[in-house]
Amino acid sequence: MSDVLNSMFLIIDTMIENCTIDYNDLQNASIDERFFDDYNNTRIVNSFLFNFSKLQDKIGAKLFKQVLYELKEIDTFSLTMIDVLNKLEKLNILDASEEWEKLRETRNILAHEYHFDIEERIENIALAMEGFMELKRIYFSLKKAVEN
Fold first, then answer.
1. What is the pLDDT of residue 115?
2. Which of 6, 9, 45, 110 lies deepest, with the highest CB count within 10 Å?
3. How confident is the model over 64-90, as a mean pLDDT?
C-alpha cells in the first residue's frame, strides 16, 4: 500500500471514529423538538452532520480513485464519477452505484436544510445516520479490497 493511500486511510479512520462517537450519542438520544433546546445536543448534531459530509467528500472525491489506482484498475485520475462508481461496482466494493447516489442525495438534502423546521431536521438526522452506516460499510469494503 502506498504512503498516499495509507495516509488517507489514517485520516478517514480518525474521521470515522469521531463521527461514530456522535452517531452513538444520537442513537442513544430521544430526538424530538425538546432535544434541540439543549445546546450540547445541537452541537452533537452539527458535529455529526459536518463529519458525515466531510467523510463523504474525502471518500468520494479522493479515496475512490486512489484505491482504483492502487488496484491498477485505472492509470489516470481524470475519470468521471459514474465511471469510478461502475468500476467499484464491478469489483464488488459497491453493491450498486445507486448506493453512492443515495448518499449524495442525502448530503444535498442536508446542505439545503432549514434549521427552523424541526420535523424536517429530525428526518434529515435519521437519513444521515442511516447514510453513515452505509458510508462505513463502503469504506471498509474499500479498505478490505486494498488489503487483500
1. 66
2. 45
3. 91
Written as nine digits, the cell of 92 is 464488488
C-alpha–C-alpha distance, residues 142 and 123, integer Å: 29
R_g of the chain computed on alpha carbons: 16
Number of domains present in the structure of the chain: 1
Secondary structure of 112-147 in HEC code, one letter for each residue = CCCCCCHHHHHHHHHHHHHHHHHHHHHHHHHHHHHH
Query: What's the whole-number mean pLDDT along residues 34-63?
Result: 93
The whole domain housing 33 covers 3-147
pTM for the model = 0.87
Q: Is the pLDDT of residue 55 over 80?
A: yes
The grid cell for 143 is 479498505
